[in-house]
Amino acid sequence: MDQLNFTGKHKTVLIGFMILGLVCMGLTFAFDDELHTRFWSNYLHNSVFFTGIAFISVFVLAAFITALAGWHVIFKRVWEAYAQFLLVGLGLMLLVIIGIWGHFHHLYHWADKEAVAADPILSGKSSFLNPVWYTLGTILILGTWAFFAWKLRQLSLDEDKNGTADFDHHRRMRIWAAAFLPIAGFTSAAMVWQWVMSVDAHWYSTLFAWYTTASWFLSAVSLTILTLVFLKSQGYLEKVTFDHLHDLGKYMFAFSIFWTYLWFSQYMLIWYGNVGEETVYYRHRLDHYPVLFYGNLLLNFVAPFFILMRNDNKRKYGTLVFTSVIVFFGHWWDFFQMIKPGVRITAMEALAHHASGHGEHAEHATEAAHHAVDFAMGFSIPGLLEIGTMLGFLALFLYFVLNRMSKVPFTAKNDPYWEETTHHVVEIHDVEQVLGHH
């Protein structure tokens, strides 16, 4: 079967999970504080996470096209469909923007004019951290990403219909792909700073964009493995072999180490520099969110490293699926710990100021807000409502992706690398057998 039949059964299951997500969001909103901090932070968390998976998918496609890679062509329709979710991501982020302008949430400290006027650090960053730039940056940059995702997919589909044995169509794809890479590199950093890093508006890190992008990439690779295994179980993509999955497993293994390198580099340099404006980020998480902090390393480094270190584990469906679930959840957890502690402080300050008024009492309220960080479900660790919300967003993502995949054939028959991808082989040498010959 060369074209996905997105059946009613699959649609029903995914719609069921979307309803679960809506119910969890409704319950979160109903039993939240007066600023609905948990609801809005859950919404921002999942919107950024799944939009980032769509972004990194088109980025990786552009990188592989530019590098003349061929091994991935057999499942490139999956990444092309992932990338199309950027339009949905734009819609999701527009609600955050409306919330900023309407003062419906307190996700960002810099969105409060009074706080900016009274805080020299926020005032100094206000030329970048402000509602106008957040709005324009999100709309223009996400719109640009979505345009390139659409363009590369259209060129790929046109190649199927009108392509020939020469590289004429592929050259056009390479031009668009090469143009996208520097645009994506610079603009993604700006958006990561706006969407995620500015939650802790006093803090900054020059490594943060690299770190976040690596997390998005691992999320996308793990979800790709799960998608491919599902499609193969339904009788599709028969020519996707253990060799393709092996390479995806190698990416998951290697980039888990790379992510850890970035994690350690960011932590070590900030610890060594001992600058208060930088150390506050880690000090707060170590003191008040140790489960989030250390759980991040266990899920995203220790587990994938020790499971995938064995070469043959990258060629076992069960092991790959198990590890992919851990890595996917682990990097969702990673974004949780990036966003939740900072949002909680901002909201607690807003609540404290609202309760005590301004002036001297407000200063004491702000100080108290920084220390009043007792255990709270949905902030200290993800609760059932967070898990349910994530499953709802995941179902929305998969519904959109599977619907897009069902419109086109899997086979990219006129791609010049089709023969290469269908005969892709990863050389595996049994160590004991090799040693035995000597």
Which descriptors apply to this entry?
0% strand, 17 helices, globular, 438 residues, disordered C terminus, single chain, 74% helix, mainly alpha
Uncertain regions spanning at least 5 consecutive residues: 430-438
| Overall pLDDT score | 92
β-strand amount: under 5%
Summarize the main sheet.
none
Principal-axes shape call: globular
What is the radius of gyration computed over CA atoms, rounded to a whole number of angstroms?
23 Å
Q: Report how far the terminal alpha carbons are from each other.
A: 46 Å
Q: Secondary-structure element order, as H and E?
A: HHHHHHHHHHHHHHHHH
Structural class: mainly alpha
Classify the helix fraction into a percent range.
over 70%
Q: How many beta strands in the DSSP annotation?
A: 0
Description:
- With 438 residues, the protein is mostly helical.
- Helices cover 74% and strands 0% of the residues.
- It has 17 helices and no strands.
- The radius of gyration is 23 Å and the shape is globular.
Topology:
Blueprint: H1 8-30, H2 37-66, H3 76-84, H4 86-102, H5 113-118, H6 120-124, H7 131-162, H8 168-195, H9 208-233, H10 242-273, H11 276-288, H12 290-308, H13 317-356, H14 360-371, H15 384-405, H16 418-422, H17 431-437
Offer a concise description of the structure.
By secondary structure, the chain is an all-alpha fold. It is built from 17 helices and no strands.
